[in-house]
Amino acid sequence: MKLLKLIAVLLDYPAEELWAHGDELRAAIDDPALSAERLAALRGFVDELLATEPMQAQERWLELFDRGRAMSLLLFEHIHGESRDRGQAMVDLISTYRGHGFELGVKQLPDYLPVVLEYLSMRPVAEVRDWLGHIGHILELLAARAQERNSPYAALLEALVETASGRVDLDLLRKRVASEERDDTPEAMDRVWEEEAVRFGVEAPGEDCNPPTRLPSGVKRNEPTVTP
Length: 228
Prior knowledge:
Layout: H1 2-11, H2 22-27, H3 36-50, H4 54-65, H5 75-79, H6 85-99, H7 113-120, H8 125-134, H9 136-148, H10 154-165, H11 171-178, H12 186-197
Helix pairs in contact: 1-7, 3-10, 8-10, 9-10, 9-11
């Protein structure tokens, strides 16, 4: 699915090379599974991005995705938090990638959403839908938060939500996130650093971020080896 590859590229940190491929980006916006409204929003995002200076676009990306955890593109941040399960989930995901001939770059984390989407862009449609359904609650949460912050990146996340579920209905979720305390302010980030500096254990994620009870198709859990 070339749409997933496109969204993977657009969701990633906007390197300057991106601006040299405007025609290719626009040509990739063509998926009959998406509504005309969603396709128009994607075209608008690409046009707006290419009209923005690279440094400005990069700073906007950092402000949204790299400050605080609420908008993190690391999926296991939302599922496992800082629990020990996160490490095993990483191992399982890397094993799945390698089992299908997909190798990560040196600095890539397996649960980074653009990486997941790039992998899925090479997989059968049924598997893609299963994976997106599995992480659908995270995609909806990110989309609702992006909407609440009036971010143009909401268009990309909404397209993923529509691909996963066939529709975008985030009204109730947006009301919930509207009452969230922002974690990307300087004060909030200072508190996080102070808390982490004195933390002696890990906490399980809250109820709203409980992982689904099953794995996406194709993923096998590798049981850790216990040495006597």
